Amino acid sequence: MSGDRHSRMVSGYFSGIVAWYDFLNRFLSLGQDIYWRKRLVHHLRTRGNGLVIDLAAGTLDVTREILDCHPQSRVLALDYTLPMLIRGRGKISSADSAFFPVQADGRELPVPDNCADSVTIAFGIRNIVPRTKAYSEILRVLRPGGRLCILEFGTGKKRILGGIYNFYLTKVLPLLGRVISRDKQAYQYLADTIKDFPRSRDLAMEMKRAGFSRVFYYPLSWGIVYIHVGDKDG
Ligand SMILES: C[S@@+](CC[C@H](N)C(=O)[O-])C[C@H]1O[C@@H](n2cnc3c(N)ncnc32)[C@H](O)[C@@H]1O
Predict the structure, then answer these.
(1) Does residue 20 lie within any of the structural domains?
(2) How remote is the CA of residue 106 from the centroid of ligand 1, in Å?
(3) In tens digits, what is the pLDDT along the chain, a chain of 234 residues?
(4) What is the DSSP letter of 105?
(5) Cβ-count burial of 109 within 10 angstroms (0-12 exposed, 13-18 middle, 19+ buried)?
(6) CB 81 within 8 A of CB 21
């Protein structure tokens, strides 16, 4: 499937579940997702009123966290699915004047070269095809010394909690997602893309090959999710 068709398909899934997205995130992760996003934002680098891009920002949970932790920064929240950004808008107060939500494709960022201190992407890189295009765009827009911080699921191939998580991921999560959101495909898509995603060390290699340096990564919640961090040289 071409990258454009894939993006439209994924965007259709997210448009279909937007009303349930936040509730299901909390419910299906037993509230762990809040902690995961906090850990992600802990790694970003920004100077004073520097620009941070939250890519695949969705309903703006990471954006909210960035604004809380770095109130001086300016945050550009980009996402392909406009209804997700609209849904999240209420999380940002009108006092947060340095916040700019924009519908955009992660493979073609509507910003100039070398403008961002950091780029965050939570549960988004898995959805962008091909990932190499997103990496080259992120490298283009980061300033020298800028940083990419990724939060993403592990592959779920390794047995976690004696196999309970693996059963949950392949059987329970798609079923619960389908029943609650009444969308047949979106949560099956989630489970399938988690399984097909590269292992953590392969993702780190992929980031290095794309041109990021000082790449490191570590698991959270027994490897249910991973944080990957890489810098642009400079
Ligand atoms: C699982 S959600 C993550 C949202 C948010 N970052 C969070 O932590 O909840 C994935 C998001 O990626 C977005 N997305 C998918 N493909 C994209 C693309 N090519 N460019 C930008 N955003 C994309 C979807 O619209 C969706 O909002």
Answers:
(1) yes
(2) 9
(3) 777 888 888 898 899 899 999 998 998 899 999 999 999 999 999 988 899 999 999 999 999 999 999 999 999 999 999 999 999 999 998 777 689 999 999 999 999 999 999 999 999 999 999 999 999 999 999 999 999 999 999 987 888 988 998 888 888 888 888 888 888 788 888 888 888 899 999 999 999 999 999 999 999 999 999 999 999 998
(4) B
(5) buried
(6) no
Residue 130: cis peptide before it, omega within 30 degrees of 0: yes
Q: Is ligand 1 within 6 A of the CB of residue 14?
A: yes
Examine residue 177 and state whether it is found in any structural domain, yes or no. no
Question: Would you say residue 187 lies in a domain?
Answer: no
Q: Containing domain of residue 34, as a range?
A: 3-155+199-231
Is 165 among the domain residues? no
Q: Does pTM surpass 0.85?
A: yes
CATH number for 109:
3.40.50.150
Dist. CA 57 → ligand 1 center (Å):
6
Beta bridge partners of 213: 231
Instruction: Report how many domains make up the chain.
Output: 1
